[in-house]
Structure formats: structure tokens, C-alpha cells
Amino acid sequence: MPAAEFPRGSASGDRAIADAIGRWFAQNMRVLPWRLEPRDPWLSLMSEILLQQTQVARVAERFGAFAEQFPTPAAMAARPIDDVLKLWSGLGYYRRARLLHACAQAIVERHGGRVPDNAEELRALPGLGRYTAGAVAAIAFKRREALVDGNVSRVLLRVHGVDRAVDGPGVQPWAWERAEDLASAATDVARYSEGIMELGATVCTPKAPRCDACPVHSRCRARTNGLVDRIPRPKSRPERTPLAITAVVVVDAKERVLLERRPDKGLWSGLWQPPCVERDAAAPLSLAKSLERLGMDSAVRVGGGSTVFDFATTHRAVRVRVWRARAESAARARGARGRGAKWMEPGEIGEIGLGSAQRRMLLAAGLAGRG
Questions:
Q1: Would you say 213 and 198 are in contact if contact means Cβ atoms under 8 Å apart?
Q2: CATH 3.90.79.10: which residues of the chain?
């Protein structure tokens, strides 16, 4: 289906669809901690970044702590990135935490601490792409901006009966064009914009959609043609690249744990972990080779066997082998890992940024409940 042949709408039809979704949302919206009236632009922005690749329920559980600690861009900009990473622990995709922190700093430096009210300036902020900028502009400032995410794409494909995958050729340009038309036609663009995302998340779901509860079911070509279960077609799924990690959890005579910070870029950027050796392979290196690469072969004594667990990220199939070791010399063990390593008391562990995989490493070494 060439881009020019994708179905279009009409001014009257687009307004009917947009307003039906807006009215439905006003009556059926979920109660979420960032949905305060009037909408706070900073809370809206922060929620959108938190919601990227993370389930709404998980964000809802944690959002109160973010709003309390970082109620304004200035409040976040004044704090070190470690404070944001600590609060982010367990939410995954930690690059978002760094981008949110950089975004807060940019808002303070460029806009006097006030979130800009238009999509162009929002897109210029760190971490805000076309979707997030459009969402904040539409929901917080009632700008007629388009927004397209997976939920919106699915609704549009079904309503128009387009039998394609969300990532199929020509689909996203068409979806953005339709989103622009609908945003322009809506009587209340803020309610429509949040409503179409809510509709895709709660009614027009990937599996078992509740068509009878949909405010635009009478206009849905997929429903009329019996294609709801077929549209959209499955997305192509890239294979995860294998990554093997050997983690050595080192404890000294004072029962402190040796941890070090990961690089600022890449997987789990900026988070803390036990000393680790990584390689692009299905199986971790042997203990002897790992200790040699870590420079710790003469600084620690490994006791007992190891524990293996698997961990999946969006792009990686990770296999982790964890060894527990005792430091022969605390100074030599720390010195082998350089300035980025630090001995931490058990109570300190809960005060730093740890990813889920890193917490499992400590758990596998018998350090469950520490910190």
C-alpha cells in the first residue's frame, strides 16, 4: 500500500472521532498521580519520560516519590545525577534518568525554570523527541500538536482498517499525518490527545480489545470487516544479542561490599555494580580469566560455587555468573579496580543507583536484604 493510498479522513469525520474520544476520556480516565487539574507541565513532562518503555502501573507506584523530591525543574537541576539514578532504580532504561536530569538543567538554564509551552522548544530539550514534545504541548498547554506512540498507531490502524504492522512501510508517516488532522479537528485537543493514548492502553488493546466499550466502534473499519484480531500485524522482532557477564561480589573483613560505577554511556550507564567482566558471547568467562582481567587474582579469595541467572533487556540476552569472594587485602582489592571502586557499608547499598540485574548479582551472592 503506497503512502498516497493510505486512507484519509474528512474534516467532519475527524472532528467526530476526536470529540468522541475526548468525551469518552473525560468519563473514563484512570486516576493517575500526574493527572492533576490544572495540569502541571513539569509533572506531565516527567511522567512522559518515566512512561517510556515502562508500564503505567509501575510508574504510578513510584511517581509520588519523584514529585515529592523533584517538584520543579529547578529542584531536580540542583541535585546530583546520583539522586535521580537512586530513585530510578528498578525502572530500567537508565539513560532516561540522565536525560531527564539534563532536561531539568536545560529548562533552568534556557527558560528560567519554566517548561516551554510549544513543541519546537520542547523538542530542543534533552530526551524529548517528537512524541514527548507533542504530548506535553497538547496535554499541558492545549497546543494542537500531534502525538503518535504504539497505542495511538494501533487505534489509527484499526479505525481505518489498515492491515499493516505498526512498523510497516509508510505506516508511521501516515499515522503522524492522521494524528495531525485529528489534533487540528478536536474541540478539546488536550482531552482528545490523552484520550486516544488511554483508549489504546485500556480498550483498543493488542489482544482481546473491548470493542463494545470503544467510543468510535461504529466508525472502526477493522471491527466492521472482522479484522480486529488481525490488525495491526505483528511487528518484526530483532533477535537479542547475547552478553555474558562474570560478576565477583567481594566482601572485606568489615563486611563491606566492593562496588564500582559503570561508564556514563551504554547499558546500565552510571549505575553501581560488583566488579564485572563482560563479553559478547553466550557463556561467561571462567573464574580464573575473569579475576585476571579484573586484576584481582591475587587480591581476593573465592569460596564456594557460583550462581547463574539470565536477564533480558530490549536488545540483549544476558547470562550472568556470580561468584562470592573475600578480600585478602581491602586496599589491594579496591586498588585493582581504580578510583571508580568504593567499599560500601551494607546500609549504604540502598542509597545508591542499582539496576535490577545488579541487585540480583548481590542477591545471588547471599546479600539479600542488605541496604
A1: no
A2: 241-364
